[in-house]
Write a structure and sequence with these properties.
The structure holds two protein chains of two kinds.
Chain A (H helix, E strand, L loop, with lengths): L4 H27 L1 H7 L13 H11 L3 E6 L5 E6 L5 E6 L6 E3 L6 H12 L3 H29 L15 H31 L29 H5 L5 E5 L9 E6 L2 E6 L5 E6 L2 H14 L4 H30 L13 E6 L6 H13 L4 E5 L11 E7 L13 H7 L6 E9 L8 H12 L3 E3 L4 E4 L3 H15 L18 E8 L8 E7 L10 E4 L8 E4 L1 E3 L2 E7 L5 H8 L5 E7 L12 E7 L4 H8 L6 E8 L2 H16 L5 E6 L8 H7 L1 H9 L3 E6 L1 H19 L3 H6 L3 E5 L1
Parallel strand pairs in A: 9-10, 9-11, 11-12, 12-13, 12-14, 22-23, 22-25, 23-24, 25-26
Antiparallel strand pairs in A: 1-2, 1-5, 2-3, 3-4, 5-6, 6-7, 7-8, 15-16, 15-21, 16-20, 17-18, 17-21, 19-20
Chain B lengths: L1 H27 E10 L8 E7 L5 E8 L10 H9 L8 E2 L7 E9 L8 E7 L5 E9 L2 H5 L2 E2 L4 E8 L1
Parallel strand pairs in B: 3-4
Antiparallel strand pairs in B: 1-5, 1-9, 2-3, 2-6, 6-7, 8-9
Chain lengths: 730, 164
């Protein structure tokens, strides 16, 4: 199973670093409580923000003559160090306005120290620091690849924060939380990497020694420290640390380490002796430390804790997803060369394989030779009689990674024997280009001379079991291979919960002609375009008919085949008789609610659903019907009803083609003449609906493709995926 | 009987013990402020020990330790041997380690009898994963030595003293 380079990198990076990531995340969560717990201490005073050096420094030097150092930490606690009058050590947090000692700094919390050492270096010094730094870098790459995966999944940067399709718990929250904690995790990874690079000297953070010209030092005019201009300008909140002059000597000076620069100040005159602005690298190191540790903001520290917690969840959910996907891997018993049934899969993340596998197992259980492979592995399958293509769509209607070359390969490799094909598209209506690639695959097959359409394309929205089972049921009927219920395969429906009573039926003079049959039912709500499934022989064999809703009745249009299982059964039953059957909602072929104009195209009995759609009042939509029949007498069955609709202005225009009479036209020929109307309808967000034989469908879709390409510059699959070309063919 | 014995012992201890302590404080020792200015080396905070060295070059007393964590003391190899041989409680003379470019000011106490008597002051330094300097600074413990600015050879740029 090939997966995209980003997904692969994302996984490989995660696998190679997860042990260190777990350790760093757990310790990181613990450490985020350090700034929070520190800030709870009461050493930050209200006057801190106002205090200026011109007030605080003289006050402290008078009160504590032995003071040597002052420092302001990330919590805005002001700490002094020095010695008292007895030469004993002096150390305490002070109030910068009164000089009062508020408390004595305790020992550093041994537990946090221990956890910090583990977080930074795993207790193995430089080696550990290297591993942790490298892990931070890998996390950075994981974040980047993850971001790209989200962008791909959401079909573009602009849709980054739109709804996420839920496949399962691990996948959904991996993406949802990934999006939310992306920025904090990116910051953690970036700052962690930066700090490691700085630590190992890859980023030069030059240290600086004040350059003072001692020969030029002045000792007058002497000023009081309270009057030093520099001290008046600088607030205590700008200060990181201050070194007091070591002695009274004029050559000993104040060193002011501010947030952005370092100054030295003559202790007698208050002149500035030197000034050094910190290098960008040094400022970045400080910023990185602030951001990485959360030391300067309790709220940020909590955000960091949550982000670290998320990393742990990502590790869990990421592996859960990976294991699930690996479980979908295919086990082929037969080679592609010896198999009669070929299942081709197009999948970006591997989830479509689970459906392919389910069918694969069922066919194998039925003693069929079956082979599952990727669409990109398409080649000549010498023994194939059936091809099933199951594919997702990726990005903006693009093929998934493992189907990127299918277009070229299907043109290149011609199958030696006729092969029945059926395409199942997996997608979600949450995305604009629903199953676009699947529609394309269907067209590609249809164009091949060896390809025999077996079913029209089926689409499965959001992995709907009902829709997949609809396809599986139809396929199983057509291939005449019973697919039984299994735990992997959604139940194939066989139940017939609805009772329908025949109310009317027309007569035919010979087989090959069509008849209309009406049923009445109170068991279920339905509408035109829904499907009636009947079981003529009361066994697994099912026949489906497209419903036209006339009044409140179910109307079918059926062609009587000699020895036709379904048609003979329907012709046999008489008005008043009751049958047990099932009406399946077929939402993808309902009359569009919003379209202003609708073109309905049918041949033969495919007119059935349209009869109902035209008959039901459809406000504001103008309907055009293009239908094909053998001859005028075949059309006669529907003529009076349709002419009534024309008279009632329910139908805007009617175009009938006769294939065996007069100009001997097909419905396609009528459409070709009205290409401009078709282009108009599509560009005006109108809808084209097709019902009838698969041959008609192939011809019409080919025509539509030409019209779309020449007049609209888009492929017909674009309109299919946007619900503007609807098909229900058989 | 035993109470009487204890009380007499206490009395003896008070009479003879107290004067000897006050004698040491008042007469025989002086406190100095000692400033260490570090070079701009890159890396972790340096562990530095100030020791009193006798005329034979042997450790006699530990005066100050910059570096709180005992697990790193073995990186100060020579001093650590002395510490192992003669363990004393150094918690009162222990402070923080010193980072490159920084300054550290501490108070050390030196017996007056050791000054100008052939003793030396040794500043020994070590940094995690970097070289170890037995004699980063070593100065003769003389009146001149304590007045001068002494250049270091390792992580220490210079050392200065001032009477407290």
């Amino acid at each position: 199973m090939t997966i995209s380079i980003w997904r692969y990198s994302h996984l490989v990076l995660a696998v190679s670093s997860f042990l260190f990531l777990v350790l760093a995340s757990v310790t990181g969560i613990i450490l985020s409580f350090q700034p929070v717990s520190e800030k709870l201490q009461p050493y930050r005073t209200d006057g801190f923000d106002q205090a200026r050096l011109s007030e605080t420094l003289p006050l402290l030097r008078t009160k504590y003559p032995g003071i040597t150092d002052l420092s302001v930490d990330a919590n805005d606690f002001v700490q002094i160090k020095g010695s008292d009058e007895n030469g004993e050590k002096l150390s305490g947090y002070i109030d910068p306005l009164t000089g009062k000692i508020l408390g004595v700094p305790g020992e550093k919390n041994a537990f946090f120290e221990w956890v910090t050492a583990l977080h930074r270096s795993l207790f193995i010094h430089e080696t550990g620091r290297f591993f942790i730094g490298f892990t931070a870098f890998l996390l950075l790459l994981i974040t980047v690849s993850g971001t790209i995966l989200i962008i791909q999944r959401q079909r573009g940067l602009k849709r980054f924060f739109t709804k996420i399709v839920r496949e399962n718990f691990a996948q959904y929250y991996h993406v949802v939380l990934g999006r939310l904690s992306l920025i904090p995790i990116f910051i953690i990874a970036l700052t962690g990497t930066y700090l490691s690079l700085a630590r190992f000297g890859f980023i030069e953070t030059p240290k600086y020694s004040p350059k003072i010209d001692f020969d030029a030092i002045q000792s007058d005019p002497a000023k009081k420290p309270a009057d030093f201009d520099i001290f008046k300008q600088i607030k205590l909140s700008d200060v990181q640390a201050i070194e007091f002059p070591f002695s009274e000597d004029v050559e000993d000076y104040y060193t002011l380490k501010l947030k952005d620069r370092e100054l030295t100040v003559n202790q007698i005159t208050g002149d500035m002796l030197s000034e050094n602005k910190y290098a960008t690298a040094e400022l970045l190191t400080t910023l990185s430390l602030d951001l990485h540790t959360g030391r300067s903001s309790g709220i940020w520290a909590i955000v960091l804790a949550l982000a670290s917690g998320n990393i742990l969840f990502f590790i869990y959910s990421g592996f859960a997803m990976t294991l699930k996907r690996r479980a979908n891997r295919v086990k082929n018993k037969f080679t592609a060369e010896e198999s009669e049934f070929i299942i081709l899969v197009g999948s970006e993340n591997g989830s479509t394989f689970q459906y392919a596998n389910a069918i694969h197992q069922q066919l194998t259980a039925n003693g069929k030779t079956t082979h599952v492979t990727e669409l990109d592995n398409y080649k000549v399958f010498p023994k194939a009689s059936h091809i099933i293509a199951m594919t997702a769509t990726y990005g903006l209607g693009n093929p998934p990674t493992n189907a990127a070359h299918f277009r070229n390969k299907i043109e290149k490799h011609q199958q030696p024997n006729p092969v029945h094909f059926s395409v199942v598209g997996f997608g979600s209506h949450s995305y604009p280009d629903f199953c676009k690639f699947a529609f394309e695959v269907d067209h590609l097959f249809a164009k091949q001379p060896w390809a025999v359409p077996m079913l029209e394309i089926h689409t499965v929205n959001d992995k709907s079991p009902e829709e997949f089972s609809q396809w599986a049921t139809a396929w199983s009927q057509h291939a005449d291979i019973p697919l039984s219920v299994s735990k992997d395969l959604p139940v194939i429906k066989q139940e017939r919960p609805h009772a329908l009573t025949v109310v009317d039926k027309t007569q035919v003079s010979a087989s090959g002609e069509s008849f209309l049959i009406r049923f009445r039912t109170e068991d279920v709500e339905f509408t035109s375009g829904d499907l009636l499934a009947i079981y003529p022989a009361d066994d697994h064999r099912e026949r489906q008919y497209s419903i036209g809703k006339i009044g409140n009745d179910v109307q079918l249009s059926v062609k009587l085949h000699a020895n036709g299982l379904g048609s003979e059964y329907l012709y046999r039953i008489q008005p008043g008789e009751k049958i047990q059957a099932r009406i399946d909602s077929n939402t993808h072929f309902h009359f569009p609610q919003k379209a202003k104009s609708v073109i309905m195209i049918s041949n033969g009995t495919g007119i059935a659903p349209f009869l109902g759609m035209i008959d039901q009042p459809t406000p504001n939509a103008s309907c055009h019907l293009y239908c094909g029949f053998r001859d005028a007498s075949s059309f006669g069955l529907y003529k009076s009803a349709i002419e009534q609709n024309l008279a009632d202005e329910k139908l805007a225009s009617l175009h009938v083609a006769y294939s065996r009479e007069g100009e001997k036209q097909y419905v396609k020929d009528l459409l070709e003449k009205d290409a401009a109307l078709i282009a108009d309808v599509l560009s005006g967000e109108g809808v084209i609906m097709l019902c009838g034989s698969l041959t008609m469908q192939n011809n019409v879709v080919e025509l539509l493709e030409n019209i779309c390409q020449t007049s609209l510059g888009k492929s017909v699959s674009y309109y299919q995926s946007h619900g503007q070309v609807l098909m229900d063919c058989y | 009987m035993s109470n009487l014995f204890k009380i007499s012992l206490l009395f003896l201890a008070l009479t003879f013990g107290k004067p000897s302590v006050s004698f040491a404080q008042a007469g025989a020792a002086t406190k100095y402020k000692c400033m260490i200015q570090m070079t701009n080396y890159m890396g972790e905070g340096a562990y530095i020990v100030i020791s009193l060295i006798d005329a034979k070059g042997a450790y006699e007393k530990t005066l100050y330790v910059m570096g709180p964590d005992k697990k790193w003391y073995n990186s100060l190899k020579e001093w650590n041997k002395f510490r192992a041989k003669k363990p004393v409680n150094i918690s009162a003379i222990t402070g923080a380690s010193v980072t490159g470019g920084d300054r550290s000011v501490n108070t050390i106490e030196i017996d007056n009898s050791k000054i100008n008597a052939g003793y030396k002051l040794r500043f020994e330094s070590a940094v995690e994963d970097k070289s170890y300097h037995v004699k980063d600074v070593e100065i003769p413990l003389t009146t001149e030595g304590l007045a001068a600015k002494s250049e270091g050879s390792g992580y220490i740029r210079y050392v200065r003293f001032s009477p407290n």
